[in-house]
Amino acid sequence: MRPFDYHRPETSNDALNLADEEAAFIGGGTNLLDLMKLEVMTPDQLVDINRLGLDQIDEVSGGIRIGATVRNSDLADDARIRRNWSVLSRALLAGASPQLRNRATTAGNLLQRTRCPYFQDIDAPCNKRVPGSGCAAIGGELRNHAVLGTSDHCIALHPSDMAVAMRALDAEVIVRDAGGGTRTTALVEFYRLPGDTPHIETTLTPGELITGVHLPVPAGDRQVYRKVRDRASYAFALVSTAAVLRMENGKIVSASLAFGGLGTMPWRNEEIEALLTGEAPSNALFDKAGEVLMKEAELREGLEFKKPLAQRVLKAVLTEATQ
Amino acid sequence: MQTTLTVNGTRHQLDLDPRVTLLDALREHIGLTGAKKGCDHGQCGACTVIADGRRINACLTLAVMHADAEIVTVEGLAEGKTLSAMQQAFLDHDGMQCGYCTPGQLCSATAMLEEARAGRASHVTEDLEGTTRLTRDEITERMSGNLCRCACYSGIVAAIEKVAAE
Lengths: 323, 166
Ligand SMILES: Cc1cc2nc3c(=O)[nH]c(=O)nc-3n(C[C@H](O)[C@H](O)[C@H](O)COP(=O)(O)OP(=O)(O)OC[C@H]3O[C@@H](n4cnc5c(N)ncnc54)[C@H](O)[C@@H]3O)c2cc1C
Ligand code: FES
Ligand code: FES
Hints:
The complex is a heterodimer of chains A (323) and B (166).
Chain A: E1 5-7, H1 12-18, E2 23-26, H2 32-37, E3 45-48, E4 57-60, E5 63-67, H3 72-77, H4 79-84, H5 86-93, H6 98-101, H7 106-110, H8 117-120, H9 162-168, E6 172-176, E7 182-186, H10 187-190, E8 209-216, E9 222-228, E10 239-248, E11 251-260, E12 267-268, H11 270-276, H12 283-294, H13 306-322
Parallel strand pairs in A: 1-3, 2-3
Antiparallel strand pairs in A: 4-5, 5-8, 6-7, 6-8, 9-10, 10-11, 11-12
Helix pairs in contact in A: 5-9, 11-12, 12-13
Chain B: E1 2-7, E2 10-15, H1 22-30, E3 48-51, E4 54-57, E5 70-72, H2 85-92, H3 102-117, H4 136-142, H5 153-165
Parallel strand pairs in B: 1-5
Antiparallel strand pairs in B: 1-2, 3-4, 3-5
């Protein structure tokens, strides 16, 4: 690990003042320290944000506000989240291990980096790690890679389970800039597709602090998260699906669906949602939804399995959610 | 950097490079070698310790981040010469072979029972708002953050079932 200075400010303003271009905020550290040991990340300053009082979950008008440093385990456990945003509890409980969830934070989870092995190997070319160096994954050994939203420069997968549920729940990220101004960005605007700048993953600029996440009242009471992985627990998703549905008189009146294990960012496809809305559930309908989901998938060698797997998971989730 | 660490009830005044992980501080600076380094990347659970009542991976956190915390390691589970119920159950049920993962398993299992008592759900819990029953499936899921190279899982689960039933 490269040397760094460690700071433990008590206020968000102090944290923002301490953070220069090369600094990193540290929440749980479960991703950052992992990558610092590998020298994939080499910040010269670490600003510990665990004492800024950002660890509260508050009901606000029109939804709930989750502080940036709320631990993944506490968020999954919160009685209000379990009751009304259960897909989020489910996604969190499907991720990592209890020990990791006890440290991992809301903001850190959103910003966790890809698990692409070439990104983690500092001797391999990687446009995300070293812009312009090439992509060893394209043409390399593939499994935990993306098939949607990819570019010729990067096919790295976004690995978070939590962010998939949040995408289905229309989450907004609350950001504070160095001047103390606050803005709120929908998750879809927050993440960026790789294009030819895969090293820029979000619309957050260096030195900006996530202070929390806002979840609106959920658009549906039928909530399901299903994750398929190489072993039953403690593994990243090969494919996952979050569904938030509402039914009336035997018809789907609202559907939000988000997908993990497929995209360079937590994926959502509005065409599927439009297709489902107003319809009665049926196998034919769910098969059609699966076709739409994988229509533009780039199934490179080693990733072909993701198409039938994603379609079956989607069908299973829709079947469960509409029962 | 000057920092204090409170481990198993004893306060230690240390001068640490901020890069030192909690695991290395315990093992190399305080001399408590119970917590083990398996992977050093959060993937095995051998380094599990209990910080302020919560089990965490000591390899993926910095010592300087725990200045105000109460840390419990495997060395702190027994009362003097009397083993904790979990330690005794691991012996009684052959919950180990080489023993490398055991300190992490013990800390993890000890904290896991508290989580279950507090009503925390897991990935396999049917009803998120129901009560927690520590079935075999629940125990294996809740202990999945601790790998055992010797595959002593059946003994480990039997030991935990025994203590959970008490
Ligand atoms: C073995 C293993 C298995 C895992 N399995 C899964 C899994 O199955 N599913 C899953 O979803 N995840 C999994 N994870 C990843 C885990 O969820 C993340 O490591 C964790 O959520 C990161 O949160 P953190 O608080 O520790 O982040 P940190 O490591 O503290 O930070 C991550 C990044 O976010 C930045 N950051 C943190 N907070 C802020 C803030 N408030 N504002 C601006 N920037 C900030 C940091 O600078 C850093 O760049 C796994 C991790 C490991 C090690
Ligand atoms: S040494 Fe910490 S999880 Fe393996
Ligand atoms: S007893 Fe050998 S690794 Fe678990």
